[in-house]
Amino acid sequence: MRLAEIEAIALNVGLAVFAAFIFFIIYDLAKKSKAGKFGTFILFLALGLGLGVFLIKNLIVYLMDL
Fold first, then answer.
1. What's the number of domains the chain is made of?
2. What range defines the domain where residue 40 resides?
3. How far is C-alpha 28 from the geometric centre of its chain's CA atoms?
4. CA nearest 22: which of 61, 55, 62?
5. Among 43, 1, 38, which residue's Cα sits nearest to residue 22?
6. Which DSSP string corresponds to 1-62?
7. What local confidence, expressed as pLDDT, does residue 29 receive?
8. What pLDDT was estimated at residue 15?
9. pLDDT value at position 19?
10. Residue 30 in contact with residue 39, Cβ under 8 Å?
């Protein structure tokens, strides 16, 4: 296995862990602020949208390289 392959795997794993941590932070924020179901949905929509767009951008770049 070459170094570039190891770096690519580590980047993907790191991004997955980072995404999970971001969603945990959003959930914890909703729980501590007692946002309710609709408020929690809005928090995930608004704050998770930035992460979602970042991941979609990476997917599009990957598909364009094929």
1. 1
2. 3-65
3. 15
4. 55
5. 43
6. --HHHHHHHHHHHHHHHHHHHHHHHHHHHHHHTT-HHHHHHHHHHHHHHHHHHHHHHHHHHH
7. 93
8. 85
9. 86
10. yes
DSSP 65: H
Residue corresponding to tokens 């580590």:
10
Cα(41)–Cα(59) distance, integer angstroms:
24
Residue 18 structure tokens:
């980072």
Percent residues over pLDDT 70 in the chain: 100
Q: Is 66 strand, coil or helix? A: coil
Give me the residue label for tokens 């598909």: 63
| Residue numbers of the chain with a pLDDT score lower than 70 | none
- Tokens 């570039």 locate to 4
Instruction: Give me the pLDDT at residue 37, please.
Output: 94
